[in-house]
Request: fold
Amino acid sequence: MELITNIFREFGAEYIKLYSKIPAHHYKTIQAIIDCRSGELGTITYKCSDCGQLHVVGLSCGNRHCPQCQNHKTQEWLRKQLAKQLAEQYFMITFTLPKELRLFIRANQKAGYNALFKASSEALKKLAKDKRFIGSDLPGFTGVLHTWGRQLQYHPHIHYIVVGGGLSNDRSEWISSRKDFYVHIKPLSKLYKSIFKREMQKANLIDNISQSVWEKDWVVDSQAVGKAEASLKYLAPYIFRIAISNSRIIKVENRIVFFKYKKHGSNKFKTMKLEVMEFMRRFLQHILPSGFMKVR
Reply:
């Protein structure tokens, strides 16, 4: 049995009682993980063609945050994306948020994540249109929302795979960027922050954000990565992977979950210990709002 599933089956009811006001999509995910392949969702019976023995298998829940349901989709997504890649230079551009915004975003996920996508993509398109950089109204990029750090902490950011160039306005010509440069990061960061602020004003949430957030620099990182393949392979696991996989969990003992992680810049595994309620809380804070698309 999968360890994460075991944790939710043993402690899910306790967690729901402890945090009685959890969001509906958290409750739905907890119940889906508990019921997955248990028989509660129905069963399928297979008959062996050789010996005639019957095999009864519980149906999967299909929830995108369930550790038993999503892993097989990664390779199919990667195959389709690799088939679309162009013979051009690619860039990996990452948009982060100031740490002072994390609690606010976690409490306003749908508005916050939508603003994060809107601000980052609009800023990219506006600067790509500038003739000093590319001069194209039709750049190409794929964004993937990622919300967790190595120890399950909350750290929302977006990775973009960006092709180095774009189509001319009449779509008759390809305009290439420089091989080692897409757009200037400083104006990209300022524009990204400005659009995000505008989106918060539209959502009537601006008064809930400290003024100091707008006074500091927002971090945007851009790296030339050559062909798209390496970046797609890096991002593919994040498309369908949940916040932590069963392979990283060492054991559950006396209500303590032991799992391994790597510190940034190191290849050596370290062990993290979390009380089971805190482990579940950290896991569930990465559950996306119902219907929200993390890839755009």
Notes: The radius of gyration is 22 Å. Strands lie at 43-47, 54-58, 90-96, 138-148, 154-167, 174-176, 220-226, 249-253, 256-262, 269-275. DSSP finds nine helices and ten strands in the chain. The longest strand covers residues 154-167.
